[in-house]
Write a structure and sequence with these properties.
The structure is a homodimer of 303-residue chains.
Chain A lengths: L8 E4 L2 E2 L5 H12 L5 E8 L4 E8 L1 H18 L15 E10 L3 H18 L4 E5 L10 H4 L3 H8 L21 E5 L4 E7 L4 H11 L9 E8 L4 E8 L7 H13 L5 E7 L4 H12 L10 H6 L1
Parallel strand pairs in A: 5-7, 6-7
Antiparallel strand pairs in A: 1-4, 1-5, 2-4, 2-5, 3-4, 8-10, 8-11, 9-10
Helix pairs in contact in A: 1-2, 2-3, 6-7
Chain lengths: 303, 303
């Protein structure tokens, strides 16, 4: 019989400072997937940013090992002294977020991030900064703050107490620069198209629902115009679907839209959504007290 | 990179006429799970019914092979001449439904059922009747009709044209009797608790929403009283969630309840639900034009 023990899944989305030499990217991806049990979901390179993003998943242990393998390979293949691109960056492996997907908490992802950070600092001699949930100093939660001055600026400033790394040497690695490692919740990119072409209404709704201007925590929102469709849109990032679920955000948008006599025409989901967020949504609207993964046939098969 | 090709999953829920000798049930389950790739989800035995239900899943090919292995083993271990129990039955393996779960149509499950039926008839010399979606005669769609007279009655009547089996010999197997094989959609057992203790209202709503009395096709509904909770309930089986989705049923219940000034207090889901039904529900209430399996992180990992 099945134990009913859910699979533990962590996602890792490292960004590497190479988006032009496809052979280099392929070798880094190969190092990552050389760890048994790791599953590659996606990778994409951007030539103008000169940067690649790799998405892979697996158990906490496998994902941690695969991330280290990728960082080590990138150190050997990428030289920050030669690197140019439009996107801000500090190192060969620029940023490594760990994301809890199933059966794992954000706290466990913080532990993975810090353990990896220590190892990268000690074994690879690359200075490491912890960010977001894994930040060890409050002024390092925000990635943009950590990356200030980029590789070239950090190289000069890393000796100052303000820029001292959380792990590893207080000098940038001669080729690999520095690396930022952290943990964050899965992000849900969710847009609401309004039954109006008046972008001012979308902007007012965005201001009402986003946390920064008094609305819901964990919601980032902008009012934008979709020129091709001639439709105003509330474009949102939901950065913690557990504390601030999708349905609560949508219902607030619907309420705010109603005061202008504007309906929601349709919505769109950009990218992926965790199963738990889908289950919470269905449970809310069906008035089920709880809809668990163990009630979904496929999850019973897969978990 | 992942091909994006979804896994093909069929569920099979055979019922065997043995619910007391646990060693016999264990041997039948072992025969089923001896097929590589088949995953056992559940099995349960009922002593008074003297009957066991096994639930397993896998690819169409694996599930078909495992069902045959179970039927063959049951033929060797169960003697219908010695079998007594409260539940109606025709044979050692009494009934074998195939259920499409993912990436498979009902029509493909009909093909599996008929191919297996032919093989059981020819190789095991057990007469086989096809039922539900796989029925080859309209009067055999309904399982109760096929099982009329049970094993003892069929033994005498099987020589008549009316009871001629769809596959296999026109005589019951000396120990295994006869077997009923078919295909059906997954069934969703969904109950709605009303904000009233007046069971008459639940009965009126049930009559309005069920297909047999003019409501929605593929919905079976009864109004019942939950004595322990002092709550009236609309108890439903949704037998085709693709053609008649959960949200449409619930919205009709809410509308009908509103005419009596009664709210829906909460709902309950008994047993399992297919992922596609959850996705359809979330998409409807979120106003997403479509929410596909390929947008769910876990499905991307598992499929």
């Amino acid at each position: 019989m099945d134990s009913g023990q859910a699979q533990r899944i962590v996602e890792c989305v490292p960004n590497f400072s190479e988006g032009r030499r496809s052979q280099v990217v392929a070798e880094i991806v190969a190092a990552i997937t050389s760890v048994q049990g790791v599953k590659l979901l996606d990778f994409s390179s951007d030539a103008s940013h000169n940067r690649s993003v790799v998405t892979f998943v697996g158990t906490p242990e496998d994902v941690e090992a695969a991330a280290f393998a990728g960082i080590e390979r990138a150190r050997d293949l990428i030289d920050m002294e030669q690197h140019h691109g439009e996107h801000p960056r500090l190192g060969a492996t620029d940023v490594v977020p760990f994301v809890p997907i199933a059966g794992v908490t954000t706290e466990e992802c913080v532990e993975i991030a810090r353990r990896l950070g220590r190892r990268v600092g000690e074994e690879l001699q690359i200075p490491v900064y912890m960010y977001e949930e894994a930040a060890m100093r409050p002024d390092r939660r925000n990635l943009a703050d950590v990356r200030r001055g980029e590789y070239e600026g950090l190289k000069a400033a890393i000796g100052t107490p303000e820029r001292a790394p959380d792990y590893g040497p207080a000098a940038v690695h001669p080729t690999a620069g520095a690396t930022v490692i952290g943990a964050r919740m899965p992000l849900i990119a969710f847009n609401v198209n309004l039954g109006t072409s008046d972008v001012e209404i979308a902007k007012k709704i965005a201001k009402a629902v986003r946390g920064s201007s008094g609305g819901l925590a964990n919601v980032k929102a902008l009012g934008v115009m979709l020129d091709d469709k001639h439709v105003a849109q509330v474009s949102m990032n939901l950065v913690n679907y557990v504390k601030t679920p999708v349905h609560r955000v949508l219902e607030m948008v619907r309420r705010e839209a109603a005061r202008y006599g504007v309906p929601v025409a349709e919505t769109e989901l950009i990218g992926l959504i965790p199963l738990d967020a889908v289950l919470d949504t269905a449970a809310y609207y069906l008035q089920l007290p709880k809809l668990g993964r163990n009630q979904v046939i496929e999850a019973r098969i897969w978990d």
